[in-house]
Amino acid sequence: MSVPNVSEGLGARLGDPLQGPYTATAFVDGRGRISLWSMEAEALLGYSADEVCGTLAADLLTAPEGREAALAARERHADGQGWDGVVALKHHDGRAVRIALRVRPVHCREGQAGWSLSASDARQVGQEEVDRAILQALFSQSPIRIIVVDSELRYRWVNAAMERGSAVPAARLIGRRIGEVTPWVNVEGIEEVLRRVRDTGEPVLDFQVRGQGPSDPDREHVWSGSSFRLTDPAGRVLGMCQICVDVTEGYWAQRRLALLTEAGTRIGTTLDVVRTAQELADAAVPELADFVLVDLLEATVRGEEPAPGPVGGQVLLRRSGISSIHEDASEALYAVGEAVAFHLG
């Protein structure tokens, strides 16, 4: 299972290391001397630009670890290659600081002009890598469907569980609106929730979405969704995250239990057997069925005990209960109270 859009999206949001934790920058010329020094580099090591510009970059390295790394980097530089690693550099206050360093050759018209350096505290880079790995694992390994949409309700990211559940590759989802690629669910309801979350900033938890899943189109499924807004540190809206869990089995089990509970309170309120038959029909529609008929043996209607054993020949029943989702119950051929004759078989 590959989720290229998820990976690209994570990379874009977390940032390339050069744009993320590696914020301290410097430039070393062809002679190995520092010629440019950023404010972030000053904050990292304590030296001002006036103090380090013009000095050898190697003078910041501590021995022997740093100088060994410098020799390895120099060999790579000779081939025009970059170098990534962790070195110990001298802080202005005299202590050694472990620095994650990225060195890249910089060229001009005449050839290589020097090297650009990007650096950060090694502990911060390590934590960023752990965070990135956790987020990647969340998107690729979570059994729960996770999607992120932008402010226009277009898919931005989807995780592997969403890909599997929708049977639609991530490449077809990214950039499309929900209704364009997932028509089997109540799109209007989902978009209404997402717009509310976008506009108010208030999360919406445990809202139900119903529809037919593409892998099981003959059965109605129910999903429990929760949505919340995503913002950057400046408060700008990045989009909305939505998490969905298939709760079909639990939903129908709950409905069956509710039906039984309601039936227990509605059926058998009197000793009138015909009234009880109608209560049974009413309790079953529409939760259990669209149309219910209850026919009773004539003996039962008269309050007599039915004859034991199987019936034979023609059986005369009395229509005792009708309930339908249609107001006129047009499906029924016989009205309540009419005799209905059935032949065995």
Could you describe the 3D structure shown?
Helix content is 35%, strand content 32%. It has 345 residues and is α+β, with helices and mostly antiparallel strands. It has 3 domains: 4-127, PAS domain (Beta-Lactamase, 2-Layer Sandwich), CATH 3.30.450.20; 143-246, Beta-Lactamase (2-Layer Sandwich), CATH 3.30.450.20; 266-343, no CATH class. The strands form 3 sheets. It has a 5-stranded antiparallel sheet. The protein has a 5-stranded antiparallel sheet with strand order 7-6-10-9-8, with helices on both faces. A 3-stranded antiparallel sheet has the order 11-12-13. The longest helix is centred in the middle third of the chain and has 20 residues, at 122-141.
Topology:
Layout: H1 4-14, E1 24-29, E2 34-37, H2 39-45, H3 49-52, H4 65-78, E3 83-90, E4 96-108, E5 111-121, H5 122-141, E6 145-149, E7 155-158, H6 160-166, H7 170-173, H8 178-181, H9 187-200, E8 204-213, E9 216-231, E10 237-246, H10 248-266, H11 273-284, E11 291-297, H12 298-301, E12 314-324, E13 339-343
Antiparallel strand pairs: 1-2, 1-5, 3-4, 4-5, 6-7, 6-10, 8-9, 9-10, 11-12, 12-13
Helix pairs in contact: 1-5, 10-11
Characteristic key phrases:
alpha+beta, 5-stranded antiparallel sheet, 13 strands, 3 domains, Beta-Lactamase, 345 residues
* Backbone shape: rod-shaped
Which strand order spans the largest sheet, edge to edge or round the barrel? 2-1-5-4-3
CATH class of the largest domain: Alpha Beta
Point out poorly predicted stretches.
Answer: 1-19
Q: How much of the polypeptide forms β-strand, as a percent range?
A: 25-35%
In the CATH hierarchy, the third-tier topology of the largest domain is known as Beta-Lactamase
By secondary-structure content and strand pairing, the structural class works out as alpha+beta
- Strand tally: 13
| Major beta sheet summary | 5 strands, antiparallel
Taking all residues together, what is the mean pLDDT? 80
The sequence of SSEs as H and E is HEEHHHEEEHEEHHHHEEEHHEHEE
Helix content: 25-40%
Give the name of the CATH superfamily of the largest domain: PAS domain
Count of helical segments?
12
Computed Rg? 36 Å
